[in-house]
Amino acid sequence: MIIILPVLIPLLTAICGLLVQKSSIGRRWFFGFSAWVQFGLAIYLVREAWVSGTQGLYLGGWEAPIGITLVLDMLSALMVGMATLMTLACTIYGFYEQKVEDKHPLRLPLIQLLLVGMNLSILTGDLFNLFVAFEVMLLASYALITLEADDWDVRQAFPYVAINIFGSAFFLIGCGFTYGLFGSLNFADIALQSEQMLADGEGSPYQVELLAMLMVFVFAIKAGAFPLYYWLPNSYPILPPALAGLFSGMLTKVGVYVLIRWLGTVMPHDLDFIYNVLVWVGIASMFFAVLGAVSRNFIRGILSFHIPSQIGFMLLAIGFFTPYAFAAGIFFLLHNIMAKGSLFLCGGVVTFLCGSDDLKKTGNLWVASPLLGVVFFVQAMSLAGLPPFSGFWGKYMIIREGIALGEYVLVGFALAASVLTLFSMLKIWLASFWTENPDVKPRVDDKRWRKMTYAVGGIAIVSLFMGLGAQLFVELSMMASEHVLDRVGYAESILTGREFR
Amino acid sequence: MAASGILIAIFAPLVGMVLLALLGERLKTNVRWFALPFPLLSFALIVLETIGHSAGTQNFIHVGSWIPGLGLDFLILIDGLSLFFGLVVSGVGVLIFFYASQYLDDHYAHHDRFYAYLLLFMAAMLGTVFSGNLLLMFVWWELTGIASFFLIGFLHNKAESRAGARMAFMVTITTGLLMLAGIMLVSEVTGSFNLNEILSQPIDPSHSLWVAAFLLIAIGGFGKSAQFPFYFWLPNAMAAPTPVSAYLHSATMVKLGVFLTARIYPMFSEVDLWTPVLTTIGLTTFIIASVFALISHKLKAILAYSTVAALAFLISFYGMAPAAGVQWDLMHIQNHVFYKGCLFMVVGIVTHCTGMTDIRQLGGLRKRMPLLATITAISAASMAGVIVTFGFLSKDYALAEKFDYMTEYGSFMPAMPLVLFILGSILKVAFSLRLFWHIFMGEEPEAVGKHFHAPSFGVQLSPLILAVATVFFGLFPSLLQGFYEKLAVPGLHAELKPNSLYLWHGFDNIAFQLSAAILAIGALLYFVLDRFTGWRWEGIPKAIRLDDAFEWGVARIPKFGNLVNQSVRADTATAYIPIISATFIAVFGAYIVYNPAVLGALAGKWQMPFHEAEVIALLTATLIAVAAQGILIASRWTTQLIFTSIVGFLITFYFVLFRAPDLAMTQILIEAATLIMVLLLLARFPRRAQAGEVTGKAQALLKTSNSVIAIGVGVIVGSLTLIFGLAPSAPIGPWYIENTLEKAYGTNAVNTILVDFRALDTLLEVGVLLIAGLGILALLMRRKRTPAEMREGAHGQGGLGIDPEPKR
C-alpha cells in the first residue's frame, strides 16, 4: 500500500493547495510540511527496499499484467528519495526567494503535480502508465516554465514544449509497437516474454533490438543526449532559480532513470549495438555540451549546458553495461541530482545578491558572503569531480570500469571533459566570487539570502556526506544495480504465475 | 599507539581549520596566535614518532576502512620517507606560521581565512605523505591542490592572483587526473591500492599496463613538482603572499612530486623507462629553469625558477639511482628546504620593507638590514654550494655520484648528466651571487630609501633559524648520519657506509675540484654578465613563455566552445526538430539498411497478397499519403493546417475498419475542434509572419530539406510498423473482453479498462487536463512586455521578486 503514497500525497497536496487560492504563510506551512512528510516517507521506502527487495503493488487489486503495477526496488526508492529531497529543498528555498505576496499562487501546487509525475514515472512498472506519468510530469513542467515568464521568455520556452511533444509522439508509437510485439505493456511481462521469445526462437532478435532502440531514442530526448539535448540549455535559463534547481536536478534525470530501467530490467541484455552507440553518444554529449558551457557567460547558461554534459557520463556508464558500471552510473546519477540542483540554487542566490547572474555584473561575493562561497565551491568541485567530494567517486567508479574493460580512449575523453568542467566552474568562481567588481554591491543586508543558502546548504551537506561517507551510497548503488539487472527476479516478484492468456 | 599520534598530527590542523573558519572572524589579527599551536602540536607528535621509529622499517597501520567498496582503506604508512616529509611539513610549518604572524599586517584583510587555508593545506600535506593507500594519497594530494588554489588566490582582487591560482589549479588537477588513471592501472594489475599489498606481489616490469601506470603517475609528479613542460605555473603562483610561497611553493607542496618519485621507486625502478624519462625530464627542466632564474628580474621569479631547477635535480637524482638503491636523497631535500625556505622569507621581508619586487630597483641594503644581509649571504652561499654551508655537501655528494655513474657506464651518454649538472650548477652560482649582490651590495637607489621601514626582529627569526641550521649542519654534517640511517626505507635506500657523511674529503677529490671550478666559473659568469649587459632585457622572452601560451589557450576556450556550439547548431531553435528527426532517420535507417535480416523481413511483408477487404484500407492509406504530401507542397499556414486535418479525418476510416466506432467519433470531434480553434488563431497572425525567419533561396532550401526529413521519418516509422507486425502471439487484450462482465461488471471492455483495470491512467489523464488548464491560466496572467522591452532580450530570471533595473 505504501508504494502508492509518493504519488498520492503530492496529488492531494496539490489539490488542497489549489482549493486555497491565495498565497499565505499558512499555505506555505502546509506545503512545507507535506514536503517533509514525503521526504521522510521516501527514506522509509529506501529502508523497505533494503529489507525486502523488489516488491509490487497491484492497483485496484488487478494482478500483473492485467492492471497497473507499481514496483519498488532499491533504484526506484533512491530516486523517489532524491525527487522528494530536491522538492523539499526547492520549496523551502522558494519561500525565501520571494515574499509571500509576490509569490505566484500556482507555483506550489504545480510543483507538487510535477512531483506526482516524477514519482509515478519512477515507480511504475507499466509502459503506458509511464507514458501517462511522463505526460503529467511534462505538462506540469510546461506550466511551470511559463508560469512566471513574461512574453519574451515564453518564446524561449517554446522549443522545450515543442520537442517534448514531438518526443511524446514517438513514445506513443513505441508503446504501440511494444504491444504489437509482446502483447503486453507490463515491464515484468515484457521481460519474461522477450526472454521466452528468444528461447523459443520465435520473433526475431532485430525486432527486440529495434524496439529497444526506439524507446532509447525517446528517453534520450528526455534525458538530453547529443544531439537531442539542444532544447535544454536555452530553455532552462528562463526558470526562476527554485524551479531551475528542481528541473535541472531531477527532471532530466528521470529520463536517465527510465533508460536504466528499460535497458536493465525490461529489455534483454544482449543489445550490444545499442550499448556501443550509447557509449559514443555519451562521449559526444559530454564534449559538445561542456564546450557549450564554457562558451556561456552567465551562470544559468553555464549550468544548463552542464546538464547534458553530465548526462554523458551516465550514458557512458550505461553503455559499459556491467553490474559495476550500472552501480557507478546510479551513484553518479544520485550525486548529480544534488550537485546540479544545488548549483542552480546557488546561482539563484548570486542573482539575488548581485541583481544579475551575468558574470560581468557579479563579483565580491567571497568577501560578502563566504557561506554561499563554501556551498558553491563544494558543489562545483563535486561537479568537476575532485576528491573527496561525491562527484569524484561517481566518476572514479565509471573510469575504473572503463579501465577494467580496456576502454582507454573513452577514459581519456572522460578525463578531458572533466578538465573542461573544472574550467567552467572556475569561470563562475573567479568572476562571481573572487573578482572585485566596483559596480556590484551585494545586497547582503536583505537577510533572505542566508536562509536561501541554508536551504542549499542542506543539500550540500547530504552531498558532502555522500562524498565523505561514500560507502553507504556505494552499497546502495550496488544493490540498486543488482535489483535493476535482475530481470528474472523482477519478473518473478511481480508476476504471480497465474495465466491470463 | 603509533597510529594515534600520526592521526592527531594529521587531523589537528583540520580541526584548527574548521575552528578558525567558524570563529576566526571575531579574533581579528589575534587569530595568528590561535593558529600557531596546531603546527606545533603536529610537529611535536611527528618528532616523538621519529624518535620511537626503529631504523629501516615500514609500519603499515590499518586505521579503518573508509570506502571498502572502492578499495579505499585508511592505511597509514610510517617509514623514513613519510616521517622525513612529515618533519619538513610540520617543522617548516611552525616557522612559516610564526613568520606569517609577523609578516601579515593590517594591509591584509581576512587573516582568519589565511590561517584556515594554511591549516587545511598542512593537514592535506601530512595526509598525503603518511598515506599507505594510493587512492587515499590521491585524495589528500588533490586536497593540497585545492588549498593551494585558495592560498595563491588569497589576494583575489588582483587579476594576476586569480590567473595564477587558476593556472596552478588547472595544471595540477589535470596532471593529477592522469596520475589517478595511473593509480587505477596499478590496482588493475595488482588488485589493490594498498602499498604493502602492491609491493608484496611479483610484477613483470615490462608489462605494458605497468609501464603506462608508471608514465601516468610520473606525469602527476611532474605537474605537482613543476617539471617541464608544466613548470610555468610555479612562477605565476608567486602571486600569493610570501609566507605561502615560502611554504607551499618552495619547501613542501612542490616537493610532492619528488616525494611521489621516491614513494613509487620500489614499484617502478625496474621499468626500462624509469631512468630515461626521469633523467631527461629532470635535466631538461634543470637547465631551462636555471637559465630562466638567471635572466628573470622579479625577486620571486628568480627563486621560483631556482626552485624548479632544484626539484628537477631531485627528480633526475632518483632517475639515475643505482640498482642498489638511493643514497643521500633526504640530505639534498633537506638542504633545499633550508636555503630556499629561508631565501623566500628574506625576499618577502625585502619586498615588505621597500615595496620593490624587481631586483634591478634594489641595492645597497646591507647597511639598513645587516642581519638580513648575513642571513641571505649564508643561504645564497648554500644555494651556490660554498663550503661550510649545507649546500656544499649536497653538491659535493651529487657530483661524486654523477661521476661514479659516468665511470660505471663509461661512454658518451652517461656523461651527459654530469655535464648538464655542472652547467646548471654554474648558472646556479651566478644567480645566487646576483640575488645577494643586487639586493645588498652596490649603491642604494633613491626610491628604496623613500619607502623603507626596518623589519622587526620577529619577522627575521624564522629565516635566521634556517640560516643557522644551514651553517651548523654544513660544519657538522656527521651529526645527521644517524638521522638518515634511521630514516632509511627498505626498497628505496641503499645501506649507508658507517660515518660516510663528513665535510672534508680532501683536495685530490674530483668532486671537490669540480665544485671549486663551478664556483669560480659561476662567479665569472655573473661578473661578465654584470659588466657587459647591465641586465637590460625584459625578463624571459615572450616567445618561449609557456604561461602566456597557456593563458592564450584558456582565453580561447570559450570562443572555441561557441564556434563548436554554432557549428552543431545547438543555438538555432528552428533546427532542433529537423536535427532530432534527422538523427532518428540516420540511426534507424542505418540499422535497417545494414541489417539484411530486417530488409528481408520488410520485403516479405510487401509480398503479402491483398484481400478484397483490404481494398478500402489501401484506398484510405493512399488518400492519407496524398493529403500528407499536400502539407509539404502548400505554402500558407492555413492550407497546411487544412491538409493536416484531412489526414486526421481520413484516419477515422481506420477506426471504422477496425470496428471501433466510439474512437472514430472521438477522432472526428478532436479534428473538428482543433481545426476550428487553430484556424481562428492563425487568423490573428500577421501575413508576413508566415514568411518565417528566412526568405528567398534559403527558405526554399530549408523547405526542401525539411520535406526530405519529414518523408524520411514517415518511411522509417512505416517500415517499423511493418517490421513489428501488429499481431502479437499471445496478447493480453482478449482477457479483458472475456472477463469484463464477470470481473469488472461492465459489458464494454474499453470502458472497464478505462475506469477499472487501468483507472490510474484515466485519473492522471484527467489530472493532465487540470494541469493544462492551470498552465493556460498562467499564460493568460503573464506580464507582457512593450515592443521596446521585447527587443532588449533576456531580463534575468523570472519570479525572483527583484527586477534588476525595474521598468526600463
Keywords summarizing the entry:
heterodimer, A: 501 residues, mainly alpha, 20 helices, globular, B: 808 residues, 33 helices, 2 strands, disordered C terminus
Description:
The complex is a heterodimer of chains A (501) and B (808). By secondary structure, chain A is an all-alpha fold. Chain A has a domain at 271-484. Helices cover 77% and strands 2% of the residues of chain A. In chain A, strands 1-2 form a two-stranded antiparallel sheet. In chain A, helix 2 (25-52) packs antiparallel against helix 3. Chain A is globular and about 75 Å long. With 808 residues, chain B is mainly α. Chain B is built from 33 helices and two strands. Chain B has helices spanning 2-27, 31-35, 37-52, 80-103, 111-129, 134-152, 159-190, 195-199, 208-224, 233-236, 242-251, 256-268, 274-295, 299-319, 329-354, 370-384, 390-409, 412-440, 446-451, 457-475, 481-486, 510-532, 546-567, 576-593, 596-606, 614-633, 637-657, 661-683, 696-724, 733-744, 749-757, 759-781, 787-792; strands at residues 59-67, 72-78. Classes of the chains: A mainly alpha (501), B mainly alpha (808). The interface between A and B is large, with 138 and 110 residues.
- Helical percentage of chain B: over 70%
Assembly type: heterodimer
Overall pLDDT confidence of chain B: 86
Which strands sit side by side, in order, in the main sheet of chain A?
A: 1-2
Net shape of chain B: elongated
Outline the low-pLDDT stretches of chain A.
none
Q: Total number of β-strand segments of chain B?
A: 2
**Global Rg of chain A:** 22 Å
| Strand fraction of chain B | under 5%
Structural class of chain A: mainly alpha
Strand order of the largest sheet of chain B: 1-2
Largest sheet of chain A: 2 strands, antiparallel
H/E element string of chain A? HHEEHHHHHHHHHHHHHHHHHH
- Radius of gyration of chain B, in Å, reads 38 Å
Major interchain interface with per-chain residue totals: A-B, 138 and 110 residues
| Tally of separate helices of chain A | 20
